[in-house]
Amino acid sequence: MATVLQPVAHEHHIDLDAALDFLNTLDLDDGQLIEHFEQPADAAGWFVAHGLVHPDAKPTWAGADLDRIKQVRAAIRDVVDSVVEGRPPKARSVELVNRTLEARRPARVELDGTAVRIGHRHAATPVQDALAVIAEAIVDELAAGRPDRFRICANDRCRWTFFDSSPTGRRRWCDMSTCGNQAKAARHRAKAKAEGAAPN
Question: What are the two backbone dihedrals, phi and then psi, of residue 85, each rounded to the nearest 5 degrees?
Answer without folding.
Answer: -90, -5
